[in-house]
Amino acid sequence: MGHRITSVLSALNIARSTYYQWKNWQPSQRETRRTALKTAIKAVYNTNRGIYGYRRIAAFLRFILKTDVGDRLVWELMNELNLKSRMVKKSYKKPTTTTDTPQKPNLMKKLDDLSGVLATDITYIQLMNREWVYLATVYDPEKRRVVSYGLSPEMTKEFATSVVVPPCFFAPKIPMFFRPLLPLNFQIIKPWAIRPHPTSAKRLTLPLKSNLITAFVSFRRLSKS
Q1: Which of 73, 82, 149, 190 could connect to 137 by a Cys-Cys bridge, CB 3.0–4.6 Å?
Q2: Are 122 and 215 part of one and the same domain?
Q3: What is the pLDDT of residues 152-185, one digit of tens each?
Q4: Distance, CA of 192 to CA of 218 (rounded, Å)
Q5: 133 with 209, same domain?
Q6: Strand, coil or helix: what is 137?
Q7: What does each C-alpha distance from 82 to 17, 51, 56, 199, 212 come to in angstroms?
């Protein structure tokens, strides 16, 4: 028998060591583990009707079957088994805004000197207690920082103008006829101090300040970029 095998291997130009290595081959621990994982992955996949993807299957193996396995390995084994989740990621189409009226040009882009120019904005912020407040800001594009802001639970005309008048009063290039509009009880709001609008200070609670500190720091970072 051995002589016949030797003759066949010699005719096929195959070394005897290669033949005996193939004959006595045993799967390694890595191959054994991958085979067992493939069986478990296929069972979980079929049990859930192909809905689970590689992340959910990996989490199922870790927390339910107590198997130490990573998401990447499960993804590789599912590719080898040609298994894919039936769930399709929902596509999101960003809404587009269209208008029929002609738009006003942005005059600030055409200015060479930004001194004396102020930009305003009003937005609303939800607090941790589910209440909403309005944040009005005045931005100096020349200095690239917020020069005034205020907080109020209501968006009124007095609230909107209260944050605009103080910067105009101290701006050197603002005409003098704007400055008498400054109220007698005005306060310059420093960028690093959170101060609510005077008319609504009694109605604002402590969670308001703690939440708006984070919101305003984010606003300052955006204004400096």
Answers
A1: 149
A2: yes
A3: 998 888 888 888 877 776 655 554 444 444 444 4
A4: 12
A5: yes
A6: strand
A7: 35, 14, 17, 65, 50
pLDDT digits (tens, 9 = 90+) for 42-71: 999 999 889 999 999 999 999 888 888 999
**Cross-strand bridge partners of residue 139:** 119, 146
Does 81 lie in the same domain as 45? yes
What mean pLDDT value characterizes the chain? Answer: 74
Give CA–CA dist 208/189, Å, rounded. 17
Angle at 139 between CA 135 and CA 143, to 5 degrees: 150
What's the token pair of residue 4? Answer: 């016949």
Instruction: Decide: 135 and 124 in contact? Cβ < 8 Å.
Output: yes
Query: Cα(82)–Cα(77) distance, rounded to whole angstroms?
Result: 8
pTM (two decimals):
0.36
Query: In the chain, what percentage of residues exceed pLDDT 90?
Result: 20
Does residue 108 form part of some domain? Answer: no
When divided into structural domains, the chain yields a total of 2
Query: Coil, strand, or helix at residue 124?
Result: strand
140 DSSP β-pair partners = 145
